[in-house]
Amino acid sequence: MTPSARPGRPEPWWLEPGGEPCETCLMVHLDELLSHCEGCDAAVCTTCLIEVRERSLRLCPACAEAFG
Amino acid sequence: MAARAIWKGVVRIRDARVPVKLYAAVQDRGVRFRLLERATKQPVVQSLVHPETGAVVPFDATRRGFVTDDGELVLLAAEELERLAPEPSRDIDLVQFVPSAAIDHRWYVRPYYLGPDGQPERYAALAAALEQTGLEGVAHWTMRKKAYVGALRAYRGYPMLVTLRPSEEVVSVEQVEAPKGKPLDDRQLAMARQLLAMLEAPFEPDAYRDEYRERVEQLIDTKRRGKEPARKAAPRRKRDAPDLERALRASLRAGGQRA
Prior knowledge:
The complex is a heterodimer. Chain A is α+β, with helices and mostly antiparallel strands. In chain A, about 10% of the residues lie in helices and about 20% in strands. Chain A has one helix and six strands. A two-stranded antiparallel ribbon of chain A has the order 1-2. A two-stranded antiparallel ribbon of chain A has the order 3-4. A two-stranded antiparallel ribbon of chain A has the order 5-6. In chain A, a hairpin with a 6-residue loop joins strand 3 (about 35) and strand 4. By secondary structure, chain B is α+β, with helices and mostly antiparallel strands. Helices cover about 25% and strands about 25% of the residues of chain B. In chain B, helix 3 crosses helix 5 (about 245-259). Chains A and B meet through strand 3 of A and loops of B.
């Protein structure tokens, strides 16, 4: 059981396995929980997403590295 | 701001080659909150944790596994998965062209505009041919180590590539229980058609906005200016809908009075 789940209750919907893989970590999420990298448009989960606030960009790790 | 190309490729139709740049045709526009610890207001970060110990697990210390229906755990190495990845390529191979209505809405996933990347004459010829024939091409390509199938079609003079779902993801409508009940009454059908006709209008995209996001942005702006946000009563719950025929009659009456 995940830390967000409560005994006797079903998992929260956002922890249910979805059908869309994050293209960085390959973990599968619900489509609603994925963003798209503003550099390459790859689907990226909230754990892998990197926010470059100075450029107001949300990037996947590969693009964040390429953008410096 | 000019769109930024997310990828470069070459559209290939037999021996013809048209170099193109892909631009995302849709974008995420959610409000970008930062999640803070309540007491310290420090931004918190997400990490992978061990479910029993709570210890943080670095991404480099993870590996992939697959749990079968029988509960067996099959371990997979990154290199094993890497070997299965499609060969990198810049080619967008067109394998067939179909009438525009042949691919229905269930298949479409994510659209990309195609812009020229040199060879402007070839690009213009491709765009014009798609526009004039109304045909839609079925394309295969590999982008970011992932194989895609997509539909190449014209949109306002630009070629547009829309990724398509693989066939196993599209659910057959036969899996939905067929409507039951009394046979359709001609009078009800006529009224239903009239009701639809009353709302018939050109599609106005600007009318369909994310109103919740706009309200949140307004709230942020109000608070940033040091003002007190307006308190708005929660909307009252709507009453249970009356039966279809009564609703149609009432709507048609109201429509008639307005006309």
